Amino acid sequence: MSVQLEQITRLNPGNGRPIVDGASLAVADGSFTALVGPSGAGKTSLLRIIAGLDPHNSGHVLIDGTRMDGVGAAARNIGFVFQHYALFAHMSVAANIGFGLSIRPRGSRPRRDAIARRVEDLLDLMQLSGLGGRYPHELSGGQRQRVALARTLATGPRVLLLDEPFGALDPLVRRQIRSWLRDVHEKLGLTTILVTHDRQEASELADMVVLMHHGRIVQAGTPQALEDTPADPFTMAFTGDVVRLDGRVENSIFTPDLPDVLPVAAPVAAGPAELLVRPIDIRLRPGYGQATATLRQARGPLGLYTIHLGTQTLQVETLIPPDAAPVAHCALDVSAGRLARGAAWATVTSLPPSGESVHA
Ligand SMILES: Nc1ncnc2c1ncn2[C@@H]1O[C@H](COP(=O)(O)OP(=O)(O)OP(=O)(O)O)[C@@H](O)[C@H]1O
């Protein structure tokens, strides 16, 4: 099922400030979306509005093109798993998973053997076969969260909302669950929206990453699009590592304050500015300056360098230039960066080579 948000706003009932602020989004049927952003950005609030668990002040939620105005949570056919999702401690794993089906009203409740079959199928899908008779306290954290997911999926929701469900698990278990989760999503033909703090998790799992900040959706796109063409400095810093360089623009040329960083052409008005560049995009230019770059560790074509620029030191993982490790008397080329100058956010370009070394 597709999920569409039209200008959703929810105000904090206490102080009237927006918790979610004019959020519009189109989530395609069968897609996997990751909702990311700093703490307090409004991610959980947005999920709860989609699920119908919290009200909103204006805008509309549409599921499969139908407005959900006045449609309660139970009628939306949406599954929701939270980080701290409590299983019933006194019930077996199988009883926990089958619970949602067993409490259905008589007319729509499946027969006992049908519930048992459904539970077995889900145990299989969750790679929990043989554990139906155990109790929650006899399971690991990762197994418990898979039971929680199975319990949510038992009633056959088409949209699955996951709010950091694996946040409390150790990184190794999280990585294992990641590939398995995408698999479950595909097999069941779900439309999944996952809140995560883990950048890697978002880009590995999701078709679309949605970045929220101060209740607003700042940018939505493929993981690659957010990394390669961030909409603003906040998005650039949130979606990957960045090196920030202060400097000044004069005559459309940005000159960094640090020595031995090559100036770049910048199509913005004169004044102070900040250049953001991904470390991986920094290039070492031997012979163009007085910086020294010491190779600490090599990993294939990449090297972890300690770079001394005047009194400053940078740790940067970037491409190893041919025949140049360690590199003395070099400059840094940051022409793959982006420039923030007040409200302007511009790409920069290399200046034409002068034919001679700049600082040599
Ligand atoms: N029912 C509520 N009443 C008042 N304020 C609320 C309510 N729910 C959330 N907020 C506030 O709204 C803001 C957004 O909260 P929300 O939990 O949605 O953010 P989040 O992005 O999910 O954060 P985190 O990553 O820490 O879970 C926070 O400042 C929070 O305190």
TrEMBL record:
<keyword id="KW-0547">Nucleotide-binding</keyword>
<dbReference type="InterPro" id="IPR003593">
    <property type="entry name" value="AAA+_ATPase"/>
</dbReference>
<dbReference type="Pfam" id="PF00005">
    <property type="entry name" value="ABC_tran"/>
</dbReference>
<dbReference type="InterPro" id="IPR027417">
    <property type="entry name" value="P-loop_NTPase"/>
</dbReference>
<feature type="domain" description="ABC transporter">
    <location>
        <begin position="3"/>
        <end position="239"/>
    </location>
</feature>
<protein>
    <submittedName>
        <fullName>ATP-binding cassette domain-containing protein</fullName>
    </submittedName>
</protein>
<dbReference type="InterPro" id="IPR017871">
    <property type="entry name" value="ABC_transporter-like_CS"/>
</dbReference>
<dbReference type="InterPro" id="IPR050093">
    <property type="entry name" value="ABC_SmlMolc_Importer"/>
</dbReference>
<dbReference type="GO" id="GO:0005524">
    <property type="term" value="F:ATP binding"/>
</dbReference>
<keyword id="KW-0067">ATP-binding</keyword>
<keyword id="KW-0813">Transport</keyword>
<dbReference type="InterPro" id="IPR003439">
    <property type="entry name" value="ABC_transporter-like_ATP-bd"/>
</dbReference>
